[in-house]
Amino acid sequence: MIDLIDVSLKYDNQTTAIDDINFKVDDGEFVFIVGSSGAGKSSIIKLLLRERVANSGTVLVNGYNLNRIKKRKIPEFRRKLGVVFQDFRLIPTLNVFDNVAFSLRVTDASNRYIRSRVPYILNLMGLSNKAKRFPHEISGGEQQRVALARALVNDPPLIIADEPTGNIDPELSYEIVELLQGINECGTTIVMVTHEHELVRDFGGRIVNIEHGRVVFDGIVPAGGHYESK
Ligand code: ADP
C-alpha cells in the first residue's frame, strides 16, 4: 500500500529533511508515524501526497509510483486517498452535510447516492444531529469528526491523518484515534502522523519513530509500552 525505498528529500538542495528512509505499510495496517518537531513528519506527508518528489529513492502509494506519476494522473491519485489535516480544512460556508457531500459531488456521485451515503457516514462518526450546523457552530473535536467523515465518505483504501489531534482537547484526541481505529477495523489502512509521543504510547501498535529525517524505531509496541531509538 505504501513503500518508501531509500527515500531522501532535500529542500533547496541543502536541508536534508528525509535521509534515506525505508518503511512499508501493508494493506489493513494502522501505523503511527511519530517524531518531534523538525523530525521530518510534514516532509513525509508531502511525499505521500505527492506535493514533493523525492530527490532519491522510490515512493509507492496505492499502486502509484510517485516518482513517475504523470501530472494529469495526480488528481486521480489524490481522489483515492482520504486525508485529514490538523486544521480540519472544512469549507466554512457549507454545513456539515454539504462539507461531507462535497467529496462525493466532485466524483459525480448521484444525488440519490449522496442522500443515503452522507447520513450513513455522519451516523458512524456520531454526527447525525449536527448535519445542519456550520463548522463555526460545532466544537473542534466535532469539526475533526466531520473531516474524518469527509475523508471516509468515498471509501478510500488509505487514510492519511496529519496531526489530526493537534488542534483539539487532549481527552477528545483519544476519541479521534479510537474513531480512526474503528475505521481501520473495517479494513481501511491508516497512517497517522503525530508529534504526541504520549498518545502513541498509550495506544501502542505499529510505531515508526522518525528523528532527524531517519527511522530510529519501527516496531509493534503494546499499549502503554515503550519504544526506544535503535
Ligand atoms: P516536522 O513536520 O516533523 O516538524 P518537517 O518535515 O517540517 O518536520 O521538517 C524537517 C526538516 O526540514 C527541518 O529541519 C525543517 O527545518 C526543514 N524544512 C521543512 N520545510 C522546509 C522548507 N520549505 N525549506 C527548507 N527547509 C525546510
Your description of this structure?
By secondary structure, the chain is an alpha/beta fold. Helices cover 32% and strands 28% of the residues. It contains 7 helices and 10 strands. Strands 6-7-8-3-9-10 form a 6-stranded mixed beta sheet, sandwiched between helices. Strands 2-1-4-5 form a 4-stranded antiparallel beta sheet, with helices on one face. The protein is globular. The site of adenosine-5'-diphosphate has 12 residues, from strand 2 and helix 1.
Write the layout of secondary structure elements.
Layout: E1 2-11, E2 15-25, E3 30-34, H1 41-48, E4 56-61, E5 64-65, H2 74-79, E6 81-84, H3 96-105, H4 111-124, H5 140-152, E7 158-162, H6 170-185, E8 189-194, H7 197-203, E9 205-211, E10 214-221
Parallel strand pairs: 3-8, 3-9, 6-7, 7-8
Antiparallel strand pairs: 1-2, 1-4, 4-5, 9-10
Helix pairs in contact: 3-4, 3-5, 4-5, 5-6
Bound molecules: adenosine-5'-diphosphate.
Adenosine-5'-diphosphate binds next to strand 2 and helix 1.
